[in-house]
Amino acid sequence: MNKSMQGPLAKSDNSPPEPLIYIPPTDNGLSIIYNDDDLIVLSKPSGLLSVPGKSTDHHDSMEMRAKLRFPKARLIHRLDRGTSGVFVMALNPKSQRHLGLQFEKRKTQKYYTAMVSGSVKENAGVIEMPLRTDWYCRPKQMVDFCLGRDAVTHWKVMERNNRQTRVSLNPVTGRSHQLRVHMQAIGHPILGDTFYARSADIKAAKRLMLHAEILELAHPSTGNRLRLHDPCPF
To answer: Which residues are catalytic?
Structure first.
């Protein structure tokens, strides 16, 4: 962890999240960033599940919407429901294996934009805090230096004022809720985060202010490096 950014660790408040009242955004059609015979890259809207939930009320998802137009679309990765941005799907089994291995072996580069609470003093740094599931408050995650799995996030300030800071986040690992827990753990929760932010910081935004803006990966057939960009909407 960047020692100059030490702050309170993410701990459970012993209250599990409220049951999800799922109101997905209106389906206005897919926003396609890139498409060829091997993959389809979409812009995921905030508020939409990546995959269908167990309940029939939670069936609407990025995966299901994509398959209506691209029946062969196959899942590669997920974004949290509140997170918007670059969402990649494969269009054949070979591409799915190739792209999946890139994510698994950390061969991709991911850059997120977030608005966080407070004025971050440092200009850049690295957060190294291992994470694990908070079993009493699932699906929340928490910092645990004994039992957690390694989790590393590079961050850089883009703009700041007295109350908020816009940051660029580059996760080296891909743990569940990693960016949300890491920013909360150093005292700067992401605005609109109903899991980890304080009440005032939740009310400060109409959505989770986290956007997957850039994803770099190798094309599964050509090997050429692709830089996929979805401009931040906030």
So the answer is: 80
